[in-house]
Design goal:
By secondary structure, the chain is mainly alpha-helical. About 80% of the residues lie in helices and about 0% in strands. The relative contact order is 0.20.
Length: about 140
């Protein structure tokens, strides 16, 4: 779960300067044309799926303990919601970014950039809550579970 959160947290930490300081040309160049986030997908995607599976396994193991089970289930649901946010918000923005070419900044630049950045920010916050729920589930489970 922490490894799933890591790339999303990196997105969150860099979002302020990317939105507030970077000119559109730099944002587009770094994000679209120079593969700055290639490894986020290659490494982060499998960790996102693993976090959901880990949460489900933890919930299964803790099914006999009401409170820890609920925390583990919450972690699973939160990481699943995060993946749904990626599919609903970020993936469509990625599809739009894939059509961009060098030259003038597209007229819809701000809306696509904001959708992309907002989606990643939402994912980071949701995953942070999911990780916290997973930690609480683990720490409140009985030693015999």
């Amino acid at each position: 779960m922490a490894l799933s959160l890591a790339p999303s947290w990196a997105h969150l930490l860099e979002a302020g300067p990317r939105i507030g300081i970077w000119p559109p040309e730099l944002w587009r160049e770094a994000t679209v044309f120079n593969a700055q986030f290639m490894w986020f997908a290659i490494v982060g995607g499998p960790f996102d799926v693993a976090a959901i599976l880990f949460g489900a396994a933890l919930a299964f193991v803790l099914r006999g303990e009401t409170a820890p089970f609920r925390w583990a289930l919450a972690a699973t649901v939160l990481f699943t919601i995060s993946l749904a946010v990626w599919l609903a918000v970020v993936a469509p923005a990625n599809a739009e970014l894939a059509t961009w070419t060098r030259g003038p900044i597209p007229g819809d630049f701000a809306s696509v950039r904001d959708r992309w950045e907002t989606g990643h920010t939402a994912m980071a916050v949701i995953k942070l809550a999911g990780l916290a729920a997973g930690v609480v589930a683990s720490l409140t489970a009985s030693r015999s579970a």
